[in-house]
Amino acid sequence: MDDHSRPRALATEAVHAGRDDLAGLGLHAPPIDLSTTYPSADSRAEAARVDAFAAHGVLDDGPPVYARLGNPTVARFETALARLEGTDTAVAFASGMAALTAVLLARLGAGLRHVVAVRPLYGCSDHLLTAGALGSEVTWVDAAGIADAIRPDTGLVMVESPANPTLAEVDLRAVAHACGSVPLLVDNTFATPVLQRPLDSGARLVLHSATKYLGGHGDVLGGVVACDELFARELRKVRFATGGVLHPLAGYLLLRGLSTLPVRVRAASATAAELARRLTADPRVTRVHYPRIGGAMVAFEVAGDPHAVIAGVELITPAVSLGSVDSLIQHPASISHRVVAADDRRAAGVSDRLLRLSAGLEDVEDLWADLDRALGAEGRGRHDVRRPALSAVRPARTADGPPPASRRVAR
Ligand SMILES: *Cc1c(COP(=O)(O)O)cnc(C)c1O
């Protein structure tokens, strides 16, 4: 914490949070501490510190004893993300799924095994809850049904907004109100704190797959939960017991990723909004999903074969995941949401013709040319329809005005 009374803006925090002590250390870049263990000649003192951690999930000042209890480089990332989300603290994990697992185990540890959740969620989150492999039990509801689904043993309410992969949004303030005293977990992976801070709407836990926008370059796997200190203590104890720790190199890369997060998210969001606009006006596309809140993700349903579009892109990478500097496209029914039973998937609004595009930092005209070609290849391949060249149709596509009734932007 610093002693500034005026809160710093997000863009400032993004480049300075977690680095406040560096100048005093005579450093500019954060140091990477790869130690797995830390020497101490005083084993009585170590015993007291281990006891304190086991009881309260906090270490007093001093080295972490052993790397599964904590790591200074990872702690910098946790501090920085907490500052961006406006929470007391944050606890980092090896992946987004490890982070969600720790939340569920922390609640089970408190004797609260029931979870209320709203679909859609990321496919593996859905699967983890549905399978109940950790001993939890889920009740799926729509947002309006949350209050009625809460039981005495409900330990968690979970939503994603905008949700993976349909970009469906829920009213977080209304949802938080419906939760009463049950902690609300919001998966904020898609929005990032640049577009939405769920704590301000009443969420207690904010989860990220840090693999996505926080890292931002497709080269680091991580997860994090931003929350109050009380809940963080439970999460640190679970992390110590189960071992899903974030590697210090990953912590370094995630901290570095945060520094460009606001710039990346704003630039990619402008591109995504423009692509959503052009897709909405395109007859080869039957429905476009682009959230009210904005963001760098676009989902759209195609009239033809979605697999042909995936096979047809050249600039855009046909790959699962999202939030990288380069654009990615995937077919949720085949990959990200394959583990969700087909009926549940469709009932959650995940059409078999839905494609999910993560806009990167490429030029929008290059991305559109690639999408247009991939959609056109699909059209020609499946239906043998000749498409006019891009230049010939562009004026019609950029014309403003409401889309035909058969095509609409899902809000
Ligand atoms: C990818 C993703 C996850 C899982 O994160 P991993 O880092 O892949 O374990 C969770 N939630 C959302 C919304 C995601 O997109």
Automatic annotation (TrEMBL):
Alphabetical UniProt keywords: Pyridoxal phosphate, Transferase
UniProt name for this protein: PLP-dependent transferase
InterPro entries in the cross-refs: Cys/Met-Metab_PyrdxlP-dep_enz, PyrdxlP-dep_Trfase, PyrdxlP-dep_Trfase_major, PyrdxlP-dep_Trfase_small
UniProt source species: Streptomyces kunmingensis
Keyword Endoplasmic reticulum tagged: no
Segments for region (Disordered): 386-411
PANTHER family: CYSTATHIONINE GAMMA-LYASE-RELATED, TRANS-SULFURATION ENZYME FAMILY MEMBER
Known cofactor(s): pyridoxal 5'-phosphate
Gene3D superfamilies: Aspartate Aminotransferase, domain 1 (3.90.1150.10), Type I PLP-dependent aspartate aminotransferase-like (Major domain) (3.40.640.10)
A Pfam family matched in the record: Cys_Met_Meta_PP
Family in the record: Belongs to the trans-sulfuration enzymes family.
GO MF: transferase activity
Keyword rRNA-binding tagged: no
